[in-house]
């Protein structure tokens, strides 16, 4: 099959469009013919080798972390899917490979795609949708009437999280650039901070939750907007020892991550709030719940650009620029 293969860590120079063997199908697997896949900052981090301590892949590997397509074969133990089903998924982190014509995934990682979406729209959802769900619903238990700050509201996670938070009944603040203010308001943001003109930490107060997608100074300053007992959940800050333990990493790596996150955890404690790092997990059940919300019309996918399969390297370069509004998708079939 044709695929986008990472041969060596670094830049796009280590990425090629070529042939690779078709995936093997285990008894609990679903084999999917991929129609579309989306590009995520996670793909760039994997390409650059930044996640080697956490994800020690053996190169070469096929890149790509979420997709939509049609089931073409199921393993003998599969009960929920059959050939012909239109599905979407974020494969398990150990079995990535969405930039390809075919992929085999565990049945538990797959869900029927939202009925009203194109394949390209469906492919844009799994990774950002699961990130937003696991931050806002699973970990924070965000309730109607609570206040949440979502950083980088025009990005992939931000565009989805704003809509999900509004669906949950929360008051939503977000940060974005001048050009995107009206646009994120249309997504549902109640308060929009132009980060080029205002300091969000000087404007916002008494928030229940911050979803941080930027890290660095943005993460540090986010502690100041929370009320006592509030939470900051970050997908871009330093990993903590809790994450390392849940990921099954060895004791030494757990202690390294404890040290990496020590400063932000200490500062959070001083502000009487909590910090946690989120590395999204695959979940077909959660994608099923998200599909129901999407089919109700409460959330719409935001797709910035669609690239042909052969131009996946160009799509990676485009995402690397950091200017995409919503998601960038690769049309495989």
Automatic annotation (TrEMBL):
Which InterPro entries does the record associate with it?
ADH-like_N (IPR013154), ER (IPR020843), GroES-like_sf (IPR011032), NAD(P)-bd_dom_sf (IPR036291), Quin_OxRdtase/zeta-crystal_CS (IPR002364), YIM1/Zinc_Alcohol_DH_Fams (IPR050700)
Cross-referenced SUPFAM superfamilies: GroES-like (SSF50129), NAD(P)-binding Rossmann-fold domains (SSF51735)
User: What is one Pfam family matched by this protein?
Assistant: ADH_zinc_N_2
Q: Which family does it belong to?
A: Belongs to the zinc-containing alcohol dehydrogenase family. Quinone oxidoreductase subfamily.
GO molecular function term, any single one: zinc ion binding
Query: From which organism does this entry originate?
Result: Rhodococcus oxybenzonivorans
What protein is this chain from?
A: NADPH:quinone oxidoreductase
Enoyl reductase (ER) domain span: 10-330
What keywords were assigned to this record?
Answer: Oxidoreductase, Transit peptide
Cited SMART domains? PKS_ER
């Amino acid at each position: 099959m044709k695929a986008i293969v990472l041969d060596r860590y670094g830049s796009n120079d280590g990425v090629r469009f070529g042939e690779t063997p078709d995936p093997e199908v285990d008894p609990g697997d679903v084999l999917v013919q991929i129609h579309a896949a989306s590009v995520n900052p996670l793909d760039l981090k994997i390409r650059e080798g930044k996640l080697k301590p956490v994800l020690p892949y053996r190169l070469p590997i096929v890149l790509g972390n979420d997709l939509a397509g049609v089931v073409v074969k199921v393993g003998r133990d599969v009960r929920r899917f059959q050939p012909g089903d239109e599905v979407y998924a974020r494969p398990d982190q150990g079995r990535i490979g969405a930039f390809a014509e075919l992929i085999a995934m565990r049945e538990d990682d797959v869900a029927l795609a939202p009925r009203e979406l194109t394949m390209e729209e469906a492919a844009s959802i799994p990774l950002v949708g699961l990130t937003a769900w696991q931050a806002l619903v699973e970990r924070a238990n965000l309730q109607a009437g609570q206040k949440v700050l979502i950083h980088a509201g025009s990005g992939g996670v931000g565009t989805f999280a704003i809509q999900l938070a509004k669906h949950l009944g929360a008051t939503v603040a977000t940060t974005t650039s001048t050009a995107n203010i009206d646009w994120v308001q249309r997504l549902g943001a109640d308060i929009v901070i132009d980060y080029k003109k205002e300091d969000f930490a000087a404007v916002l107060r008494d928030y229940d939750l911050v979803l941080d997608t930027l890290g660095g100074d943005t993460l540090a300053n986010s502690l100041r907007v929370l009320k006592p007992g509030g939470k900051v959940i970050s997908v871009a800050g330093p990993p903590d020892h809790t994450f390392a333990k849940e990921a099954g990493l060895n004791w030494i790596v757990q202690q390294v991550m404890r040290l990496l996150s020590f400063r932000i955890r200490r500062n959070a404690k001083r502000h009487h709030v909590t910090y946690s790092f989120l590395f999204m997990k695959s979940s077909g059940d959660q994608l099923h719940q998200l599909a129901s919300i999407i089919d109700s019309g409460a959330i719409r996918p935001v797709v910035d650009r669609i690239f042909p399969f052969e131009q996946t390297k160009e799509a990676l370069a485009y995402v690397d620029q950091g200017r995409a509004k919503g998601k960038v998708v690769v049309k495989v079939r």
